[in-house]
Every structure is written in structure tokens, then in C-alpha cells.
Write a structure and sequence with these properties.
Elements lengths: L17 H30 L5 H23 L3 H26 L5 H23 L1 H6 L2 H4 L7
Length: about 150
């Protein structure tokens, strides 16, 4: 093999910065999931009647606090935060389907049920992203956790 075909480490096929790119993509995906979850929170706050906004705002604030703190933990490569965020997102799907309907005293017709279904689908998509996206899994994997922040 010619000398110029060898990479800086001396091994053919070595790609410097592969984990840094994966970490960067994982963090970008984490930011996108955060933004999507805030859209779902806005739907919760503004879809119900004005008289029922107080319990909805309290639920949104508590959920936003938990999801934000767990996402910060994922950002700093804490694997348990990823698992806890999965549980929180799956529980939020159940709460959107059962508890918010009671909090808003919604009549049974298509409008409010459709909004709750959209909220549940948004939370399901966010949960799927945290569970299945490879870059987010690599962000919290133990094999990359020992490397310092900013390692390339």
C-alpha cells in the first residue's frame, strides 16, 4: 500500500473525528427533539379552553423542567438520563391520552381529541428518536464516555 494511502494513525481506513461527528449529530438531534417537545407543550397550553389553562400550564412546566434536565444529562453523556427520558416521554403519551381530556372537561367530538392525538404522536416521535437514533445512543454509550468533552 502506498504511503500516502495511509491515514494519520498509520491504519488504512482510519477516520479522524468519527466520534466527534457522531456526537455533534447526536447533539443536533437532541436539540431538534427538544424543540419538537416544546411545540407539543404549546399545543397543550393553547388548545384547551381558557378556564382550564392553569392546570395545563402547570403540567407543561413540570414536564418541560424534567425533559430539559434529562436532556442536559444526555448532552453530558449520562446514560441513565436517556433511559429516564424514555420513561418520561412514554408516560407523557399516556397522560396526554387520559389525564388532559379530564383536565379540560372536553366533550367527545373530533376537535379536542384530534389535538390530543397530535400531542401523543409528537411525544411518540420524540420517544422513538431517543430510543432508536444511533447518534443519540452513541452520545450516551460507555465506549465514548471516557473521552473528554471536545475530543476529536
Amino acid at each position: 500500500m502506498p504511503a500516502q494511502a495511509l491515514r494519520p494513525s498509520g491504519y488504512p481506513g482510519y477516520r479522524k473525528g468519527r466520534t466527534a461527528g457522531s456526537s455533534r449529530r447526536g447533539r443536533v438531534l437532541l436539540i431538534l427533539i427538544f424543540c419538537v417537545l416544546r411545540v407539543a407543550d404549546a399545543l397543550v397550553c393553547f388548545s384547551g379552553p381558557a378556564s382550564a389553562r392553569s392546570p395545563a400550564v402547570a403540567a407543561v412546566l413540570i414536564g418541560a423542567l424534567w425533559t430539559t434536565s434529562l436532556m442536559v444529562g444526555i448532552w453530558f453523556r449520562q446514560e441513565w438520563c436517556r433511559w429516564a427520558l424514555m420513561v418520561v416521554l412514554l408516560l407523557s403519551i399516556l397522560s396526554a391520552m387520559f389525564f388532559l381530556r379530564d383536565a379540560f372537561d372536553l366533550p367527545v367530538h373530533a376537535g379536542p381529541i384530534l389535538v390530543l392525538l397530535v400531542i401523543a404522536l409528537i411525544n411518540s416521535g420524540a420517544a422513538w428518536g431517543v430510543i432508536q437514533l444511533r447518534d443519540i445512543r452513541r452520545l450516551t454509550s460507555r465506549s465514548h464516555a471516557s473521552r473528554p468533552y471536545g475530543y476529536t
